[in-house]
Amino acid sequence: MLKLLLALLALGIGAGLFLVELLRRLNAVSQVSPGWPEPSLARLKRFVGEVLFQRKIIRHRPLAGWAHALVFWAFLAFALETLNHLSQALPFLPYGFLPRHGWFHTIFQGIVGAFAWAALGGILYLFVRRFILRPAPLGKKLSWESGVVAFFIATLMVTYLLKYHDPGLYGVGTQAGPTVWWIHTLTLCAFMALIPRSKHLHLVLGPLGVYMRNETMGHMQPLDFENEETGAHLLSDLARKDALAAFACVECGRCMEHCPATQTGKALDPKQLVLRVRGGLLDEATQAAVSDTVIPQDWLWQCTTCGSCALQCPTGNDQPLLIQELRRGLVSEGEFPATFRTFFDNLERSGNPWRYQSAEAVKFIRELDLPMADGSQKVLYWMGCMARYDESYRKVALDFVRILRAAGVDFGVLVNEKCTGDAARRAGNEMAFQELAMENAALINEIGPSTIVSTCPHCIKTLEEYKDLAPELRLGAVPIVHHSAFIKDLVQHGHIELKPDAQFDGAAVTYHDACYLSRYIGQEVIDAPRDLLRFS
Q1: Contact 134, 172 (CB under 8 A)
Q2: Run of H or E residues at 395
Q3: Which residues touch 103 (CB under 8 Å, ≥6 apart)?
Q4: How far apart are CA 489 and CA 204, in angstroms?
């Protein structure tokens, strides 16, 4: 009976400290804007792949990823064994509730034992990596928490192996069994108490962060100006999924390792951005202005929104989306770099970022003798500002038009097309974006194309966002595709034939994936250009 009382006391202290700190953090999450993403099959599939199979962690850092995965899978395998272990505190279950003999015992303990050894190897590698190898993304400061957690995990694995496997093999007699049991139990209780106070809260919140992440990376909801929505100004304006993901941050440094701003010496640090949000929420600073008070304002303007950090994050953080929400709040208050004023004015007055007159685009369109979209064509070629005004990029438009004509595609272009508003939206000027979007969406809706194709990745991403802004304009069913995917489809259906070029025979070709194609749009436009190169 004494064993039971002492075990309950230890578990009560460990579980109590765990719950108190966990509830404190969940309460902080509850202080921000309400609302959760809708459940979906896509989210469930991502959860299975990234959490249960550790796909992202292994892919981005194979050695550390496999080590982490082995520890994670060991904890899953230990779930039933841990309950069996704790049940041994009951006077009537001195050996637990699981069979001690027979096929189930042999198979189950064999599997758990194998995972225990795997976890020991994994945690040893992670310890060496953090405290001896010390790669730059982990930061200069040594983390005592990581050392303690590594010790706890190793202790749990070793005590399991000592107690539940052949004592003679490991040199532990039966008299040492109770001591080993208590070491295992007290370590488990101490681990529980530490989890919510450290980055290891990701064990609980990380899977939720992955599940809650937007199905489409960087997906921005339009602001409702009639209801006086102006973006994020305070921590309380952030979405709950962002607050949850901040507490799930594992501080692995993947984001800063791949951030072009950080890697080129700028002040922006996507890891510290998330940690500052977390710190502000814990300090109950939800009514404090985020820019400068929590996050330096210059960080917000250094982000290129390339999405590399969000793609790398294993716990669901989307720093570019968070930054764009904060930019919207700043722009609504008139706080933005002085150089942006000219850019915003150009968009509002000329419909393009450089204040070119539309007559220049009309002249180029007529020189190419491009058909004007009038509703009779099935395909709308959305040219974008670069193809309409930039001399070097016009070559891309010219080549694509030649392919369309060679394939006999019935297409048209909009003479009065304006900038999609992509740059305005990424910079935080939601008002300018929505004005441009509504004008363009109305033009598209008027001609009713079956397909929209563009050579500009940013245009494709932003045109997709029109569907949220103007559902009444019936754009939702219209596919918006990149020209590489469109050309691939033409080749596969025999509308055009690619002829091999002798100068490229056997040559190694380097292809650059645009950020807004590979990260924001998806696998189709990653494969299409490569397939075309293989076809030729």
Answers
A1: no
A2: helix 394-406
A3: none
A4: 44
d(CA 32, CA 236): 4
Q: Three-state DSSP class for 320?
A: helix
Which residues, at least 6 apart from 36, have a Cβ–Cβ distance to it below 8 Å?
Answer: 212, 240, 241
Domain coordinates in residue numbering, the chain:
2-30+61-197, 225-332, 356-535
Give the integer Cα–Cα distance in Å for 314 and 295: 22
The 3-state DSSP composition of the chain as helix, strand, coil percent (nearest 5) reads 65, 5, 30
Number of neighbours of residue 21 by Cβ within 10 angstroms = 17
Phi first, then psi, for residue 418 (nearest 5°) are -115, 170
Q: What angle do CA 160, 164, 167 make, to 5 degrees?
A: 110
Helices 339-350 and 430-447: crossing angle in degrees, nearest 10, is 30
Q: Model pTM?
A: 0.90
536 residues of the chain, pLDDT tens digit each: 788 899 899 999 999 999 999 999 999 999 998 878 888 888 999 999 999 999 999 998 999 999 999 999 999 999 999 999 989 888 888 888 888 888 998 899 899 999 999 999 999 999 999 999 988 888 778 888 899 999 999 999 999 998 765 554 444 445 567 888 999 999 999 999 999 999 999 999 999 999 999 888 888 989 998 888 889 999 999 999 999 999 999 999 999 999 999 999 999 999 999 999 999 999 887 777 787 778 999 999 999 999 999 999 999 999 999 999 999 999 999 999 999 999 999 999 999 999 999 999 999 999 999 999 999 999 999 999 999 999 999 999 999 999 999 999 999 999 999 999 999 999 999 999 999 999 999 999 999 999 999 999 999 999 999 988 877 666 778 999 999 999 999 999 999 988 877 777 777 888 888 999 889 987 678 889 999 888 77
Residue 445: both structure tokens together? 């809706």
| Contact between 437 and 469 (Cβ < 8 Å) | yes
Q: Which two tokens stand for residue 533?
A: 């190169």
DSSP E strands in 468-530: the ranges are 480-482
**With contact defined as beta carbons under 8 Å apart, do 50 and 265 qualify?**
no
Distance CA 385, CA 397 (A): 11
Strand, coil or helix: 185: helix
Using CA atoms, how far apart are residues 451 and 99, in angstroms rounded to an integer?
Answer: 63
Stated as kind and residue range, the H or E segment containing 309 is: helix 308-312
Task: Report the C-alpha gap between 518 and 512 in whole angstroms.
Answer: 10
Name beta bridge partners: 412: 380
82 vs 188: CA distance, rounded Å: 9
CA 146, CA 199: separation in Å to the nearest integer?
9
Q: What is the CATH number of domain 225-332?
A: 1.10.1060
Structure letter (DSSP) for residue 288: S
Q: If DSSP codes are grouped into helix, strand and coil, which group holds residue 283?
A: coil
CA-CA distance, 386 to 460, in Å (whole number)?
13
Query: What is the 3-state secondary structure of 12-54?
Result: HHHHHHHHHHHHHHHHHHHCCECCCCCCCHHHHHHHHHHHHCC
Cβ atoms of 167 and 173 closer than 8 Å: yes
DSSP letter (8 states) at residue 289 = B
